[in-house]
Amino acid sequence: MKVQTMSNKERTSFLTFILLVFSFFFIFFFYLHPISISDTDDWIFLTYHRDAWPIWGGWNPIRVFAEVTIPAISSASAVLIYPVIGNIFTSLSLGYAVCIAAAVTCLAFALYRLNKKNLSVFGAIAVTVFFLACHFWIFRTAYQDNDYMLRTADACTVFYYVIPNLLNAVLVLWMEMDSELVKWDSGDKRYAKKSLFVLLVYFCIFSNIWAGMIIAAYVGSRLLFSLRPLLQKQKKLTDWLTENRILLILIAIWIVSQIFEMNGGRADMVEKEISKEIGLTITTLLRTARSMNRKFAAVIIALLLIGIAVQIMERKKEELKTTAFWGTCFFISCIYLILSCSKVGHGFAARPDVFYGLFFFGLMAVVVNAVYLSGKYQKTKVLILLLLLIILNDCSSGGRTFRESNMLNLSPRIINNINNDIVDQLMEAEDLGLSHTEIKVPVFDDEDNWPYAVYATDALGESMWKLHVIEQNVRVDSIIPSSEKDYLLSIGTRGKT
């Protein structure tokens, strides 16, 4: 791979851009829409420990990434941030915001480097801003509470779904950018880069089935597009196998991950009758597509069709091949998404954190055409800033534009009211010298009182003890939904801790 060099001015512009990306997403996920501990799953996995390899027959056999990183980041936040801030939940939100902001920044960095091959610094930054803005623009149709591609159900699913999606996208762009990465010639001494590649592959595949689909669809498409010389007998099978051995190993590892997941506890519990669910899944995907912002859809379709039309007229075979490649990735992802959601429940197909692979590959097909058009029609560059301004403005409604990352779309302040009150009750029990206590929480309209379920007794005291918020492991014997705690659902109240 030829190393790209930048002038001091270009390097300054690039570093400033990367810093701005990180700062924006950190502020977004810490201040505007903080990632809060908002339900029972968050409390359970806050300090949950598992082996850092797939567990045959486990509840989440392949979800290594989330179940290793959540307790690690939680503990780091408790040790490094909590003593300074004095509130454990704000500390956790800050730590989680750093993680997701870093993941988005890595994606921006990878996309910038890929497009810098064909564009100026300004052009590469503009395309990257457009790509990131589409994450918010796609579903911005109402004045408030809109979905977006980085939103999910709670704090733990940020690590189960959102960050793995981003990391898989980063891995794809890295492999696309560095053609030598998967060759591993014997003379290649880049051991640090290879080690990082192996670690990233491991975490990407062993994260969840839909995030892993992204790298699998990409690798599968590369293998399909490499078959032509073999089928035309221009290349021997042994040579093809040698050239693609790393890609074949990646697919083999992905297949192993699928076997592990199919034999896990969750898969047994949620399995549906596929023949009935396929139609419902397709209907759900089509309904979700119809809910997109029409201006977003018009711009995306226009860029794609105009780019393809110009390439056909100009007989640009390589550019058309690139578009076809990303389209193949999209198609493979779509087939896998339909089949997998038909097995576990068609409702999953409506979740942005589940169909992120479709969004990513579809947007990449648009990006390569936008880059081509930008290079061919140089004078159109004078419109870039105006177009970006219009798009970014349309991403916001001027109100509370986006939904919160919790299942009931509660204000983060309300979530913290409840959490702080739980800790206050644990501390009060500790001060009284009690080793066991009961915890009262607000009443929710659910049989188990979800999102603060009555069955999560062990998670409350133990997690706060492990994070050094309380000194003794106060056992919670029962969680009692109580109307006397419903005042916590008012934004005007504040917890003490």
What characteristics describe this protein?
3% strand, 63% helix, two-stranded parallel ribbon, 497 residues, mainly alpha
Please specify the SSE layout and strand pairing.
Blueprint: H1 8-32, H2 40-45, H3 64-80, H4 82-85, H5 88-115, H6 121-137, H7 155-177, H8 191-205, H9 209-225, H10 228-231, H11 237-243, H12 245-262, H13 265-270, H14 274-290, H15 294-314, H16 317-344, H17 356-376, H18 384-394, H19 412-431, E1 436-441, H20 457-466, E2 475-481
Parallel strand pairs: 1-2
Helix pairs in contact: 1-5, 3-5, 3-7, 5-6, 5-7, 6-17, 6-18, 7-8, 7-9, 9-12, 9-16, 9-17, 14-16, 15-17, 16-17
Overview of this protein structure:
This protein has 2 domains: 8-394, no CATH class; 412-489, no CATH class. The chain is 63% helix and 3% strand. It contains 20 helices and 2 strands. It has helices spanning 8-32, 40-45, 64-80, 82-85, 88-115, 121-137, 155-177, 191-205, 209-225, 228-231, 237-243, 245-262, 265-270, 274-290, 294-314, 317-344, 356-376, 384-394, 412-431, 457-466, and strands spanning 436-441, 475-481. The N and C termini lie far apart (53 Å). The model has no long low-confidence stretch (mean pLDDT 92).
Instruction: Quote the distance from N terminus to C terminus.
Output: 53 Å
- How would the global form be characterised? globular
Number of helices: 20
**Proportion of strand residues:** under 5%
> Helix amount, in percent?
55-70%
Low-confidence stretches: none
Number of strands: 2
> Taking all residues together, what is the mean pLDDT?
92
Describe the main β-sheet briefly: 2 strands, parallel
Radius of gyration: 24 Å
